[in-house]
Design a protein that fits this description.
mainly alpha
């Protein structure tokens, strides 16, 4: 991750949930986002296939009300942090899945929404948390694996 991107992610986590993250957290974060976006795209592919389409449209992705709110909140935070362009680069585009231009354009925002939800989940796990540790990452990941 580029130095410019690292400082943006550090600022994002401070703004989103008053968290201080380090380089190890950013590695975990990157892996987490890639996996969750991949999971959403797999479900989107299944939904598109069930409707006899071979291209994933935005409405095929299982975006819950809570995730939609987090995406909305990310848009506000992004005005302060300018993270979407970095997320667009970070967000995976699996070659075996085809998706529309609209879906492509929304992936960075979806990653941002997941990021807001993740930051807030750390605070739900421990309201006094300042710097997530391995156990916090494991708990947050387990929660997301149950829901997404």
């Amino acid at each position: 991750m580029q130095v410019r991107a690292v400082s943006k992610f550090e600022r994002f986590f401070r703004v989103a949930a008053s968290l201080d993250v380090d380089k190890e957290d950013l590695r975990r974060y990157s892996d987490f986002i890639k996996q969750k976006i991949h999971d959403l795209l797999i479900r989107g592919q299944a939904n598109a296939s069930a409707n006899d389409r071979d291209i994933i449209e935005p409405f095929d992705l299982p975006i819950t009300k809570g995730l939609q709110q987090s995406i909305h909140d990310f848009r506000k935070i992004n005005e302060k942090v300018d993270l979407k362009s970095v997320l667009d680069e970070l967000t995976p585009r699996p070659v075996d899945l085809s998706f529309s231009q609209q879906t492509e354009e929304q992936l960075g925002l979806i990653a941002g929404g997941i990021s807001v939800a993740l930051a807030r989940t750390f605070k739900y796990i421990d309201s006094d948390l300042k710097n997530p540790q391995t156990e916090h990452w494991e708990r947050a990941t387990s929660i997301f694996n149950q829901l997404l």
